[in-house]
Structure formats: C-alpha cells, structure tokens
Amino acid sequence: QVVEAGVDVDFPKVLRAMGPLDRIIQAAGRCNREGRMDRLGEVVVFQPEEGRAPSGVYRAGMNEAIIILQRESVDLHHPETVEAYFRALLGDTGTDPLKIQEARRCFDYPCVAEKFRMIEDNTLPVLTPYPDNGCHLFREILEQVEAEGRMTRQLWRKAQPLLVSVRKRTLGELSHMVEEYPGGLLVWKGGYDLQLGLVGVAPEPLHSIY
C-alpha cells in the first residue's frame, strides 16, 4: 500500500499479487520508473496460493482485472483499457450503498452526517495490559471503572496509551478473549507482546494482571 500510494521509488522488477487493475498499474509504475535501465523492467502479477481478497469493491475490481488480463493483446498503456475497466467496475458495484446522495437531495443533512465517513472505521478500541508500567495503569483504570460504574471522559483520556484498535470481525472471532466493562469499555483478557501485539495467551495468570 505504501508503494502504491505514490512513494517515489524505482525497482528493476516488481512482483504484485492479483488485485484491481488500477492497483496493479500503480505498482507497475515503480518498475524502471526513472528509465535508468537499458531494457524494459519486468512486472510479474501472480495469484497467491493462499489468502482471500477483501470483499466489496476490491474483490469486484480484482475479478474485472482477471477478465481484462486474460484477453489477447491487452494494452495496459492505452487509456481505453482503463476506461473499460472502470466502466465495468462501476456497473457491477453499487457506489452509494448507504443512499447518502439520496439523503442529500432531500436535504436530510442529519442523516448524511450520521452515515458518511471519509474513511470507514470498522475497529473498536480495546484496553490492553502493556508490559512493564502499562500493567499498573491497566489495573488502575479497571479499579476506577468498577468503583464509578462507568467510563468517564477523564478515564478514556487516561486509557489512551493502552488502547489498541481491533477489527470488529476479529473481536467477534475472539469474543472469549474480551470482557466488556461499564461504559462500553472492552478489555483484552490475554497478553500483549511488544513485537507481535495482542496474544491470545496471557503471559501470567489473569488474576495477577487484574
């Protein structure tokens, strides 16, 4: 993602897993970018043996890319190729599933404000027992939440250094490792590794952490 975001780097060979056509072209733009080679660079698009593409627009774009790349004599340098790709992609993908434009036309701005997100956030903050000094703060926060029966603004501010954003889907799969406290505070019952992040097995008995 960093390379495709526009970082000015130059490689003689680029390997890119199959994905949406615009992402592939963006990655290919980093191959012999500055024309220093006396020959063309090489871009290899491969299909991973394992791993699934994200659902939604990404997967739809990948499927359209597969169709286009299987055509004979396809020219990715020609604007018509990219135009045909986006025309097919927009035809297969709903661009406004939340009906935000419809709400705008009706001047229902509270609805627009509720539904629109520039960057969709599908994560939730989880209080995590960081090693060393983090465990002391972790216990202190839990004790105050239990004493007050809620999460105050001051407690949320104090908890910031110990909060880890976890995808909602991951939380659903690991619900047995998460405990909900008053005020919507989610608490990780496992441990935290400084290199690996959240770990499913606590480094010490839970009663000694809490």
Please characterize this protein's 3D structure.
Helix 2 crosses helix 3 (79-92). Helices cover 39% and strands 16% of the residues. With 210 residues, it is of the alpha/beta class. It has helices spanning 21-28, 57-69, 79-92, 100-105, 109-115, 133-148, 153-159, 168-173, 206-209, and strands at residues 13-17, 42-46, 123-127, 163-167, 178-181, 185-188, 191-193, 197-199. The strands form 3 sheets. The chain has a 4-stranded mixed beta sheet. Strands 1-2 form a two-stranded parallel sheet. The chain contains 9 helices and 8 strands. The protein is extended, with a radius of gyration of 24 Å.
Summarize it:
With 210 residues, the protein is α/β, with parallel strands linked by helices.
Instruction: Calculate Rg over CA atoms.
Output: 24 Å
Overall pLDDT, averaged? 84
Indicate the percent of residues in helices: 25-40%
Q: How far apart are the first and last residues' alpha carbons, in Å?
A: 38 Å
Overall geometric form? extended
Give the tally of β-strands: 8
The biggest beta sheet, please?
Answer: 4 strands, mixed
Order of helices and strands: EHEHHHHEHHEHEEEEH
Chain-wise SSE layout:
Layout: E1 13-17, H1 21-28, E2 42-46, H2 57-69, H3 79-92, H4 100-105, H5 109-115, E3 123-127, H6 133-148, H7 153-159, E4 163-167, H8 168-173, E5 178-181, E6 185-188, E7 191-193, E8 197-199, H9 206-209
Parallel strand pairs: 1-2, 3-6
Antiparallel strand pairs: 3-4, 5-6, 7-8
Helix pairs in contact: 2-3
